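--- STAGE predict ---
source: upstream dedup step, 1 unique chain passed
mode: sequence only
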Amino acid sequence: MLAQSHAIARYLATVANLYPSNAEHAAVSDSIVDAVNDVKSAGYDAYYKKDAAVMAAFKETKLPYFLGKFETMLKNNGGNFFVGAAVTWTDLAVFELLEEMFGLSGELAAYPTLKAFKANMEQRPNLKDYVVAADRPKAYVLAALK
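--- STAGE serialize ---
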């Protein structure tokens, strides 16, 4: 029985051929997905504490730090995917983070590679349907930080 969301996601990615088969790529993939979870955790903390100082620290320090790292990693892999030459669960994890945190891409202006990545991912057939779905979760974290 699997009980942890990260383990479940990795298992499903493996079954769906979205998990890298190369050990080095798998390690890089896991580290990026872990960083995505770190950003989410910090974002949720800022959102739910409703403390202006915590929100400001997240928006002005933590978020730019991680987005800068993601921008560099994506550029270093050619700009289309985070690991390897095809979509992996890593790309889906980062895309979901960008959707959840930003919804619209305006806040990504300082990160052109991430902005283009998000736009490209939004055009993938199943993700395109998700992005335009009326019942999908809406971005909320940065709206609270403004």
